[in-house]
Amino acid sequence: MALLRKRLTLSVIFIGFCVIFGFALRVAAQDDKPLRLDVKLVSLFVNVTDQKGAIVGGLTKDDFKITEDGRPQTIQVFERQSEMPLNLTLAIDTSSSTYKDRYIEQQAAKKFVRAMIRPQDQMNVLQFATYVDELSGFTNNVSKIDHGLDGLRGDGGTALYDAIYLGSQGLGKKDGRKVLVLVSDGGDTVKSTTYPEALEQALRNEVMIYSIIDVPIEASAGRDLGGEHALITLSEQTGGKHFYVDEGGLDKAFAQVSDDLRTQYMIGYYPHNQEPGRSFHRIDVTVPRASAESFTIRHKTGYYADAQKSRD
User: Fold this and answer.
1) Distance between CA 56 and CA 47 in Å, rounded?
2) Most buried in the list 33, 62, 95, 273, measured by CB within 10 Å?
3) Is residue 282 part of a domain?
4) In whole angstroms, how large is the CA radius of gyration of the chain?
5) What CATH number does residue 169 fall under?
6) What is the spatial distance between Cα 82 and Cα 237, in angstroms, rounded to a whole number?
7) What is the per-residue pLDDT across 219-268, written as a single tens digit (0 to 9) for each?
């Protein structure tokens, strides 16, 4: 009798398990939400301007088309003005060639901080000459950032690419929008990090580079035109922008960076139909009706999907 009761108990347990398992299968079959395994959302921050350079607002998700390696993608996320936290690294050239502008840089940067920082945002300050130094860690405390800016010192060479490499690494640990603002008069003279290494680090860490180029307005004598071109290209490749310091001074240049960051569309998609074997995926964003209106569309050129190799 005891054996019979034991068998009946086991049978009931088995039947119950089958019922529960069958119910779970039915629920899974009815759930029409697609499973995404190891597929990362690719986020783009896009600026659109017209022929006169004026910002084009009011566009919708349906106005944009995205391709990855030439293959159409479906936009999953769209925001006309991103409220994502802004993580910003301000990297200032303090090499000997910029000594005359040191005080002006400090005051203009302090105004920029006050115009940009919201409660959800964070900023840190780097200076670069022969070496790169962090003057303040990431914070939204304006007084701490001011204190860091008051510590600007330096002379000697210009470790521009080191600043981009290290600044991008620091930003890569943050969530949200990641922006590196460079203030410099030209090229790299330290020759530690290379241009390709600096660009790759920025793209891998999804960092937009904004270059504020401060050079003599007069003749090109003494200017590092190759360095200026490198700054311009770095900005273009990462979806940022470059500005020259003109008669409006650094205040105007910082204000232009601020305006540009406040007028970005945020677009996201989950990659599908990817071309196998690629480590770098190239992105193209278009507004089809722009062919008649000649819009200029700025965004990062692509992203790395493979793991980064350690640097010797």
Assistant:
1) 8
2) 95
3) yes
4) 25
5) 3.40.50.410
6) 21
7) 455 667 888 999 999 999 999 999 999 877 899 999 999 999 988 999 99
Query: Could you tell me the pTM of the whole model?
Result: 0.83
Per-residue CA distances from 156 to 98, 129, 165, 264 (Å): 10, 6, 19, 37
d(C-alpha 291, C-alpha 138), whole Å:
42
Same domain? 185 vs 232: yes
Provide the domain count of the chain.
2
Tokens of 136: 């303040």
- SS3 for the chain, per residue? CHHHHHHHHHHHHHHHHHHHHHHHHHHHHHCCCCCCCCCCCEEEEEEEECCCCCECCCCCHHHCEEEECCEEECEEEEECCCCCCEEEEEEEECCHHHHHHHHHHHHHHHHHHHHHCCCCCEEEEEEECCCEEEEEEEECCHHHHHHHHHCCCCCCCCCHHHHHHHHHHHHHCCCCEEEEEEEECCCCCCCCCCHHHHHHHHHHCCCEEEEEECCCCCCCCCCCHHHHHHHHHHHHHECCEEEECCCCHHHHHHHHHHHHHCCCEEEEECCCCCCCCCCEEEEEEECCCHHHHCCEEECECEEECCCCCCCC
Residue 175 domain flag: yes
